[in-house]
Amino acid sequence: MVGGLALLDMLSPATLGVTVYLLLTEKERLSSRLMIYLVTVAAFYFSVGVASILGLDALLATFSSIFQNRIVSWVMLIIGGVLFIASFYYPKSKKTDLPRPKSKSKTAMIALGFTTSLIEVGIAFPYFAAIGLMTTSNLEVFQWLPIIVGYNFIMVLPPLILFTLHLLFGRVMQRPLVRLQTRLSKHSGSAVSWVMCIVGLILVFNSLDYL
């Protein structure tokens, strides 16, 4: 289930948008600047994930196991229901301007990575759903730490694939990248709505066994 949530998080419009923009416009030092940006995004989400699991684990440890499971399950049920219902009202045709770096220095790439991560972490429903599942499963550190690492790698895998295709095919990728940039800007609202719906259903069904 966590793997499925990781696949949903591959649809990040901001991260993909910045990657496509760099591939289309950056002529020098593309590899280093794109890698700095993606490592910053992955490191940010990794830190948030570790901090969330440790914090949630410490908080939930104050309750008895039975009371803990019921409280967590009800919270997950309510959040899942709200996400599922809200997904039908999210503006699916909403067109957004994807983030674009004003400067392409290494410092600017780090700042852009933090900025886009901060923007998207508030709607990173699959990530926090996965964290909730791992917390309620009472996994040990040696179990959930590799999962968090793998999850974050999967999150940045689409930009890495685009970068690899760009290296292999060069100018042939220009037209597909332009079309992808247009579609990301036009349909980012639909992607968010779809993710909200699926994550809501996962949270609802996962909570039913413990109510």
TrEMBL record:
Domain of life (superkingdom): Bacteria
Keywords, sorted A to Z: Membrane, Transmembrane, Transmembrane helix
Pfam families associated with the record: SfLAP
Signal peptide bounds: none
Segments crossing the lipid bilayer: 6-24, 36-59, 71-90, 110-132, 144-169, 190-208
Descriptive protein name: GAP family protein
